[in-house]
Design a protein that fits this description.
alpha/beta, Rossmann fold, six-stranded parallel β-sheet, globular, ER, ADH_N_2, oxidoreductase activity, NADP-dependent oxidoreductase, NAD(P)-bd_dom_sf
């Protein structure tokens, strides 16, 4: 029996250009006619989509070097999503009922080029886990920082989507001591109690240099940095000889209300980098295409064995998605943030 599709669907548009950080007032949930898939397309009913800070950069318009298009006023938002194929044209290799990932979230239904859909398979026990940011943490810690047994690892922004997985990853890769940072004392306690961080720094509560010195008296061997700014600068001052720094984000600049989302200046001591023979590299998944498959397999194994957990927050319904984005910018959530859509 053919699936009866709804006549309309909803999506979230950018309806006005923000000055500074975007808020719910800059978006609208709109209804539009739902079209059947054409040749080479499939129609997917989205079940979950990711709320991620990179939208700030795309909305701000600073997309030089970013492999995603700018979001202009009147455009629908987009991003990683998990959904179910509900309609396909003749000859498609996908079938209704197939679970897939793609990049057209922020809408109830998505017309997606078949080549832009990836079947979920059974590597991960929870479909939401396909929206994790763990691939970036895993790639940075294995390809750039190359965590070794006995290392002291510092992870900035440890309560975010990347950091909430990176601490456990560092430990599984051999780190002896894992230190994190977060601006929330409550989150710091959760990182220690739930994710096994040895110590968590709270920037702003006291000198970051003093906190790092107390947490790592002999210095740090590895930095996984999602923040930049003063935390990167303090990490350089705490680096041991031969330390390896992997940068996967720059939230201090990206989420600043005074910047455009596409720059994150930081003043660091280059003399110390040279004198301590510190390597400092930025991680891009495009440079390591093999990482995704490797990470997915290992992530699934670790989830099933209980060696790692995937902290995430489910936000119910399209109407709450713009507010969830603002809350992400404000640092209100712990781990990955996903919007869950009910069947329609």
């Amino acid at each position: 029996m053919a699936t009866v599709l709804p006549a309309t669907t909803r999506e979230i548009l950018l309806t006005s250009a923000p000055e500074g950080l975007p808020g719910p007032e800059h978006f609208s949930v709109v209804e539009k006619p739902l079209s059947a898939p054409g040749p080479g397309q499939v129609l997917v009913r989205n079940q979950y989509f990711l709320v991620f800070p990179g939208l700030r950069t795309l909305i701000g318009g600073q997309v030089d070097g970013v492999p995603l298009p700018r979001i202009n006023v009147g455009d629908a938002l987009f991003g990683p999503a998990v959904g179910e194929v509900v309609a396909t044209p003749a000859g498609s290799t996908l079938r209704p009922g197939d679970a897939v990932t793609h990049l057209l979230g922020w809408r109830e239904h998505a017309l997606v080029a078949e080549g832009d859909c990836a079947p979920l398979g059974d590597a991960l026990p929870d479909p939401v886990a396909h929206l994790s940011s763990g691939s970036a943490a895993y790639g940075a810690l294995t390809r750039l920082a190359e965590v070794r047994p006995g290392d002291t690892v510092f992870i900035t922004g440890a309560a975010g989507a990347v950091g909430s997985l990176a601490g456990s990853l560092a430990r599984l890769l051999g780190a002896t001591r894992v230190i994190g940072s977060t601006r929330s004392p409550d989150k710091a306690e959760r990182l220690r109690a739930e994710l096994g961080y040895d110590e968590v720094l709270v920037p702003g509560s006291q000198s970051l240099d003093a906190q790092l010195a107390a947490a790592a008296p002999e210095g740090i061997d590895v930095l996984l940095d999602t923040v930049g700014g003063e935390q990167l600068a303090a990490s350089v001052r705490a680096a041991r000889r031969g330390a390896r720094f992997a940068l996967v984000g720059a939230l201090a600049g990206q989420l600043s209300p005074h910047r455009d989302g596409g720059s994150a200046p930081a003043e660091i001591d280059t003399f110390r980098i040279v004198n301590q023979s510190v390597s400092l590299r930025g991680y891009s998944g495009m440079d390591h295409p093999e990482v995704t498959e490797e990470w997915t397999k290992r992530f699934g194994d670790w989830l099933r064995s209980g060696e790692i957990t995937f902290p995430y927050v489910r936000v119910p319904g399209m109407d709450r998605a713009p507010r969830a984005l603002q809350e992400l910018f404000e640092g209100r959530h712990f781990g990955t943030v996903v919007v869950e859509l009910p069947p329609r």
